[in-house]
Request: fold
Amino acid sequence: MSNLVIRVADLPQDFPAIQAIRKSVFQQEQGVDPALEFDGKDEISEHLIAYLNQQAVGTARIRYLDGKTAKLERLAVLHTARGQGIGKKIMEKALEVIASKNILEVVIHAQEYIKNLYQKLNFVEEGEVFEEAGILHVIMRRKLDSSDLIKKT
Reply:
């Protein structure tokens, strides 16, 4: 997949593409309320954007909760680009970005049906399944160390 580029988004220029991906995945496919999806935290977050053949196909949001913990949110890949490992590659890039800031821990509210993706990336399930935006989720955590700074290819 040599035509895949994942980078930290350049805001505000990339935000319309990020919004379009999230609207397609979360609002249209999953029925998430726009007020929940666009929660006012985008401005205080870092975003990743993935381009496949120069088309924006995926995104994720990194929100720094404090000096040692980041929350990965809003991982989304357009339906037309799924099944190619793009979500995993976005997550790997996000972990690299987070580790470069000396953050020690990453937390996610993983949708229950996709938690296996996060488990493959060494996230550990924590607590009970809960409902968020009408979708079953589970909290998952991962500790970071210097090996997370190694550039993934």
Q: What stands out?
A: The longest strand covers residues 55-64.
